[in-house]
Structures are given as structure tokens and as C-alpha cells.
Amino acid sequence: MAEVLVYVDHLDGAVRKPTLELLTLARRIGEPVAVALGNGAADTADVLAEHGAVKVLTADAPEFADYLVVPKVDALQAAFDAVSPAAVLLSSSAEAKEIAARLAVRIGSGIITDAVDLEAGDQGPVATQSAFAASYTTKSRVSKGVPVITVKPNSAPVEAASAAGAVETLAVTFSAQATGTKVLSRTPRESTGRPELTEAAIVVSGGRGVNGAENFAVIEALADSLGAAVGASRAAVDAGWYPHTNQVGQTGKSVSPQLYIANGISGAIQHRAGMQTSKTIVAVNKDAEAPIFDLVDYGVVGDLFAVVPQLTEEINTRKG
Ligand code: FAD
């Protein structure tokens, strides 16, 4: 069976959920060989094996410690040369997409980004993508070289599948580009304790209807009751009520959670572009004619300041 390289997203050895989802998809098209880099890389092996990785290639070096993509591209290329895989899969984070693009150029392959599904095909893996604000679903495959494919978080279930997960050390020779850039300083962002927007299973978003930065506390309280990430429409971001890093949509982030709750958001096409592939969509809007109601699974016509606190209270009560 052909081997499929899976680039592992982890923090000090703790594997992030999108990587486990990638392993589910990788097993559909071949035998997953995971590539884990940086501090704690070898600690990822057990979890990866429990989700179907037949082999885990690890490398650790100071070059992987910072947000520098070229050393990681060098390592992934070394893994590619060692394995000769049938495909390379990465999750659709900003960093992984840059790594994917650079690798594809180096190995002369086509690339598919932001796939939402993946299946085996006669002429190679077939990826499903959502296009034009999810008005269309396209299926495509790479016709040149070995496909490099990035997959959106929450696109596949996490499935247990026991495999050997034998750990092998990957020899990496860094290119001049990799060693030519140094990080001089970094300023960590204050942590909110909430999940990453693009990885969260639940996203609670607020729009212009939230009517002020301080009112986002209502949205945050609902998010916290559900263990969700907070999103915002561009109108809310442009008004300075919430950071741009939380913007959902065409010029913001693309999310695909199990549950998306839109509060005071009209449902403009550019907002839909970033959330329409969510599995279940709920909207709270005081205008029954708001376009968001065309795509919801559940809609509440009402004032968010009356509806959302009640919902939060009910959830907190049920949680005990
Ligand atoms: P509005 O459209 O003003 O809707 C506010 C809604 O809140 C209304 O439906 C109203 O009925 C409801 N409301 C008001 N008060 C309450 C209340 N108390 N309770 C309940 N409901 C209430 N937008 C994005 O979101 N993301 C993007 O990435 C993005 N990219 C863009 C890129 C381009 C090139 C362009 C041109 C536009 C882009 N936009 C984007 C902007 C987009 O077109 C809309 O302007 C924006 O999404 C509107 O945000 P909104 O729904 O919060 O505001």
C-alpha cells in the first residue's frame, strides 16, 4: 500500500486534533507516515500510532523552535525524499499552508488547499473543496507530481486505528535559506483560554448587532459556557469591537466547526464564505428577513441581548 506523509501539528509533543483528523483521511488513501518536528516530536508517537500512523519520522533542532517555515520545509522535503509517498497531507493552518506551498514548488507538484474531504481515486486522491462562498462543491485532483493537500480542521472524524508507529529519526540538512533568518524577538499574545478559532468544535460569533466592544461580553459568556471560540463579522471588527484575528469570512478566517452560532450577523456572502461549511448553524437575529436565516439549521428571531444570556444561563445550569 502506498505511503502518505502526514505533517504533524503539535505543541511540545501534544498532538493537535486536526492532525488526528488528517490520519483518518490519510488511511483512506494509503498508509500514514507521520512527520513530527521540534520539541517533544518523539512524544507524539504513541498518540499517532493509536490513530493509524505506521511510522513516525521525528527531528528536533533549534531551527524548528521559532515561527520560521523554511527549516520545516527542509525537514518535510527530507521525509518526502526518504519515503517517496503517494501524497502529502497538512492541516490548513497559516503556517502549514506556507509549508505546503513551498514544498509543492520544490518537488514540482500541484497543490490543493482547504480541502473539506478526501477520497481515493483511480488517478490519485480526490479532494473536495467548497467554492464561491460554499455555493459550489468542487472535486479536484493534482495532475502533476505528488499531490500536496491541506485540509481544513473539523473536516473528518478522529478515528482510533492501532498501528505500529515505529519512531525513526529523520536526518535533515538545513538549506542556506533556513539558517539565513533569525527571530530577534517575540511578543506572546495574551491567552484567552479559548480554543483556536479555526480548530474549535464550536464557534460563537457576534456582528454589528452586538453594538459595542463591551457588549461582546455577552458573546464571550455564551462561548465560555460551551467551551467555544469567539468569532466576529467584519462589521464588528471594522468598528474596533473585536480583533481582526477573530474575523470570520472571506477576508478573515475560514471555520468549519460542528456548531456555529451567529448573533446579530446579517449573513452577507463574504461572511458566509468563512462559515458556511459548519455542520450545524444557529442564528439569533431580530430581523426575520435577515439572509442568515436562509442557511441556518435553527433560527431564533429575537433580540440577542434577551436571547443569548438566557441560553448561556440554561447551558450553565444544565452543566451543573
Ligand atoms: P450587518 O449586515 O449590519 O448586520 C447586522 C445584523 O444584526 C442585522 O441583520 C440586524 O438585524 C441584526 N441585529 C441588530 N441588532 C440586533 C439585536 N439586538 N439582536 C439580534 N440581531 C440584531 N464580512 C465578514 O463578516 N467577514 C469577511 O471576511 C468579510 N470580507 C469582506 C470582503 C469584501 C471584499 C467585502 C466587500 C466585504 C466583506 N465583508 C466581510 C463585509 C460584508 O459584506 C458585510 O458588510 C458584513 O459581513 C456585515 O456584518 P454584520 O452581519 O455584522 O452587519
TrEMBL record:
Cofactor(s) needed, names only, are: FAD
**What are the transmembrane regions?**
none
What Pfam families does the database record attribute to this sequence?
ETF (PF01012), ETF_alpha (PF00766)
UniProt KW keywords? Electron transport, FAD, Flavoprotein, Transport
Start and end of every Electron transfer flavoprotein alpha/beta-subunit N-terminal domain?
4-183
Database matches in PROSITE patterns: ETF_ALPHA (PS00696)
**Alphabetical list of InterPro entries matching this protein:** DHS-like_NAD/FAD-binding_dom, ETF_a/b_N, ETF_a/FixB, ETF_alpha_N, ETF_asu_C, ETF_asu_C_CS, Rossmann-like_a/b/a_fold
Function description: The electron transfer flavoprotein serves as a specific electron acceptor for other dehydrogenases. It transfers the electrons to the main respiratory chain via ETF-ubiquinone oxidoreductase (ETF dehydrogenase).
Summarize the subunit comment: Heterodimer of an alpha and a beta subunit.
Q: Which family does it belong to?
A: Belongs to the ETF alpha-subunit/FixB family.
The protein's name in its UniProt record: Electron transfer flavoprotein subunit alpha/FixB family protein
Q: Which organism is it from?
A: Streptomyces drozdowiczii
